[in-house]
Each structure stands twice: as structure tokens, then as C-alpha cells.
Amino acid sequence: MEFRQLAQFLAVVEHGGLVRAATALHISQPSLSQTIRALERELKTPLFHRVGHGVVLTAAGEALIGPARQLIRDVATARASVAEVAGIRTGRLDIAAMGSPLEFILPAVGAFRRRHPDVFISIETPAMESDILHQVREGRSELGFLPFQDEADIHSEAVRGRLELVQLGVERMKLVMPPGIGTALPDPLPIGQLPDLPTTAAPFGAQGRDAVEKALRRAGLHTRLGVVTAHRSTHCSLVLRGIGMAFSPEGQVNQAVRTGAVVRDLDPPILLPYGLVRRAGHLSPSAAAFFEMAVEHFRDRSSD
């Protein structure tokens, strides 16, 4: 099995077909088809079903994606490590982030880019925490920044995926209401005095949603849902348009406050830790450097 074969296999997966993959790789489609057939012969199993003019992954093909991505990542890490010894600071940094942690790492991204201008940076922004864990497990991203409501819950996922979890901080969940609504409510607001408004929320499984649901259950309350969307960056925007209220991390409410939203702290507070996940083992030089920079940045942020 050759590195080239796995790279071309992944290109077919990521581009959704032989024609688009061949175009992206700047090779002919017959040449790409021949490479895939040779890989299938070596593995003694089909990797794709040929359907009409397209291809669909077989179960064996699905199983190959994760190991193939990790091998590609390991080769890239080896090359970058050798290049680093030679004083060459090129390469790429693949990270995934969501919610407030995404906002929090942007200064570190800027500082890293200024220090290493020849490193290409890719930032993916999945909608759910489980998507970040999946991307890091499969090697699509080396580092993932995300909230987690219960370290034990996410740590069990991390252990199963051979991941390491580093907590970087904790933020408060705040109640966000439309302009002019709830202005007479106390701050902080006892959870038992929440207004009777529909809630814009993320799906179950989202760490912030789970933290809020646990707090409401302890108070003998339940969520009256108005809108459910995994794209948490839209929650405050929906509230500003009069669609009920939302529970949002403090790092995501500043813009809403500036545009007239009514925001209250909660009593007792709902706390949401956030942190970083990475694969166990060696990181590429770029990821290792950014890891150190990000941890230092969050440490400085916590001390402010």
C-alpha cells in the first residue's frame, strides 16, 4: 500500500467522485481509477460501489477513512518535523473550534500567523461538540476547541478515541431577552423567576443545552422550546428579532448587548467549562507551537 494510493482514495471521498477528485489532483480520471482499483486488489475488497456515473463508499471504504487520514497526518508531521530541524517554518495548522472558544482563540491565531507567516491555517467550525471530537479522532483536525458541560462525559469520549482533554477555562451562561423585555427583572435573576418566553436552544447533546436543562430540572422547571438550531451563533440574533429568549455563554452575548438585548446573570450560576482536545501522541510542529500559544493565551485571559 502506497502513500499516493491513500491520498488519492481520500481525494475521491472528499470530492465526492472520481471526476472532481481527478480534476483537483490534476491527473486523468483513468489514472485515478487505476490507482483505486490497484488499492482494492491489494486490500482484497471493494472500497466503492460504482453507481451510475458516481461512486458510493462500501463498509470497507468507510473503515479505511480514519486510518488513511491519520497516516496522511503522520507523514505530514514527519515532513514538518524534519523541516523544522532545517529551520523551515512552512506547513499547515488544522484546527476545529466552536462557540465562545472559537472567539477566544482568534487572538492566538493572529499572533501565531504573525510569528509563522508561511504556515497555512485551516479553521473548521462544526455545529456540535461531537463533530469536533470526530474530526480530531479521524485526523482532519489536530486540535479542537469546544465547551463541555461535564468533564467526565466528554472525557469518556476522549478515552475511547485516544484523545487528550485540556480544560482551559470556565464561563457563565447568561439569559438573553429581546429589547424592552425583562428590564424590570433582577440581576442576577433567580432561575425560579425566569420569564414565560419560548426558548431558542441547541439540540440535545450540545453541552450548553445540557447544562441549562440540568439546572432547570433542579429548579423543577422545563424548557418551553420555540426554535432549535445547532448553529449557536444565531441564537442571540433570533432573540433580537423577538423570537423568545436564549441561554448563551457570556463570550457570545456582547454584540447582543450592544444592539439592545436585555441580558441577565443567573442565580445559581450555570457554569460551562471549555477546553482543547488533541490526539494522543506527537503533534506536528505547527500544532505543537499553536497548542503552547493557545494554552498561554487562555492562562493570561483567566488571570485578567
Q: Can you describe this structure?
A:
- The structure is a single chain.
- The chain is of the alpha/beta class.
- The protein folds into 3 domains: 3-67, Winged helix-like DNA-binding domain superfamily/Winged helix DNA-binding domain (Arc Repressor Mutant, subunit A); 90-168 and 276-303, Periplasmic binding protein-like II (D-Maltodextrin-Binding Protein, domain 2, 3-Layer(aba) Sandwich), CATH 3.40.190.10; 170-272, D-Maltodextrin-Binding Protein, domain 2, CATH 3.40.190.
- It is 47% helix and 23% strand.
- The chain has helices at 3-15, 18-25, 29-43, 59-85, 99-115, 129-138, 151-160, 207-218, 235-240, 254-258, 285-303; strands spanning 48-51, 54-57, 91-97, 119-124, 143-147, 163-177, 189-190, 199-201, 225-228, 245-249, 262-264, 266-267, 271-279.
- The strands form 3 sheets. Strands 3, 4, 5, 6, 8, 9, 10, 11 and 13 form a 9-stranded mixed beta sheet that branches. A two-stranded antiparallel ribbon has the order 1-2.
- Helix 5 links the parallel strand 3 and strand 4 (119-124).
- Helix 1 crosses helix 2 and helix 1 (3-15) packs across helix 4.
- The longest helix is centred in the first third of the chain and has 27 residues, at 59-85.
- The protein is elongated, with a radius of gyration of 23 Å.
- The model has no long low-confidence stretch (mean pLDDT 87).
- GO terms for molecular function: DNA-binding transcription factor activity; transcription cis-regulatory region binding.
- This is LysR family transcriptional regulator.
- It comes from Rhodococcus aetherivorans.
